[in-house]
Design a protein that fits this description.
Layout: E1 2-6, H1 11-21, E2 27-29, E3 41-45, E4 60-63, E5 82-83, H2 88-106, H3 109-117, E6 134-138, H4 142-153, E7 157-162, E8 172-175, H5 176-185, E9 189-192, H6 206-210, E10 222-225, H7 234-242, E11 248-251, E12 271-273, H8 283-298
Parallel strand pairs: 1-2, 1-3, 3-4, 4-5, 6-7, 6-9, 7-8, 9-10, 10-11, 11-12
Length: 313
């Protein structure tokens, strides 16, 4: 039996799609009666804490998103293998989001949007080339590497930072605490795709932002966070925006979601807000992945993308 344990998503839609990918398998959802002894697998997205406890025959938990930080908020999480999503559909969607906003920053789209509302024809129509702009990506996993390759194809200068060393063709790479400052100092657009762990929580703070390049062809540096809301300190972001340290910020994730109505981020002229939809998990694509993972387990093979509990990703 497969248990679907979701919060904030259309549970019925996921049950339906998973059933199509695994015909003949019994699939149940939290909130309906089921025999807890019959559950061998669980798929989760922000399940209620403790809801996966007391499943004596549980063999594995599958996250329905790329991130797994929410799982470790459950202090009763069963001690079974956890597997995360690495899927080409989700990866492509994230790269689309990153590339779109990098191009909008490059071509000053927000500036022209504001000028259109004022019916202002600006004679200063200078546009730097992509090759003039340095993009730094924090987080060089599947998502970060794919975005880096595609940004390179657009002509941008691309660098990457990760906790441990990585080698990626055409991308200058930095790692660890010792490499972070040098990485920031040559970054015009900072793209954050890090997992949320105890080590990365609150990493986007005033000190990090002030380390970004102030001599780039875009003028002030920009920030794009499409990773996790817990990575950022929103008070520090607003402070550096108001002080002119940052030129623009694109946020898809927030410390509190949905973003509270009284948040100053909603109306700040230098902030773009999107509703945590940079890379939504597609039920068909992710359902097919879960089905493949379970088939591997039942064939005696190790599924892909196992989470390292010690690193929390």
């Amino acid at each position: 039996m497969l248990l679907v344990a979701l919060s904030g998503w259309n549970v019925g839609q996921w049950v339906e799609r998973l059933q199509k990918k695994m015909p003949g398998r019994e699939i149940v959802a939290l909130g309906e009666p089921f025999d807890r002894r019959a559950v061998h697998y669980a798929v989760s997205w922000k399940h209620p804490a403790g809801s996966l406890a007391n499943l004596p025959n549980l063999s594995a938990i599958f996250s329905l998103g790329a991130g797994v930080d929410f799982l470790f908020n459950d202090d009763r999480l069963p001690d079974v293998p956890i597997y995360r999503v690495v899927d080409s559909d989700l990866t492509n969607r994230m790269s689309e989001y990153v590339i779109m906003h990098c191009l909008m920053l490059l071509r000053q789209t927000r500036r022209y949007d504001a000028q259109q509302k004022e019916k202002l024809w600006d004679d200063d129509r200078f546009q730097p080339a992509a090759s003039d702009v340095r993009i730094g990506i924090m987080g060089m996993g599947e998502l970060g590497q794919d975005a880096a390759r595609k940004l390179r194809m657009m002509g941008f200068q691309v660098a990457g930072w990760s906790r441990t060393p990585k080698q990626i063709d055409g991308v200058t790479t930095y790692s660890g605490d010792t490499g972070l400052q040098e990485f920031l100092s040559c970054t015009d657009i900072l793209v954050v795709l890090l997992p949320l762990t105890p080590q990365t929580r609150g990493i986007i703070d005033e000190r990090l932002i002030r380390g970004l390049a102030q001599n780039g062809r875009l003028g002030k540096p920009a920030l794009i966070n499409a990773g996790r809301g817990g990575l950022q300190k929103e008070a520090d972001i607003l402070k550096t925006l108001n002080e002119g340290v940052l030129g623009h910020v694109v946020l898809d994730v927030f410390e509190t979601e949905p973003l509270p109505q009284d948040s100053l981020l909603w109306t700040h002229p230098l902030v773009t807000v999107t509703p945590h939809n940079a890379a939504m998990s597609d039920p068909d694509a992710i359902g097919a992945l879960v089905a493949r993972q379970i088939a591997k387990m039942e064939a005696g093979q190790e599924p892909d993308y196992r989470v390292d509990r010690a690193r929390a990703y």
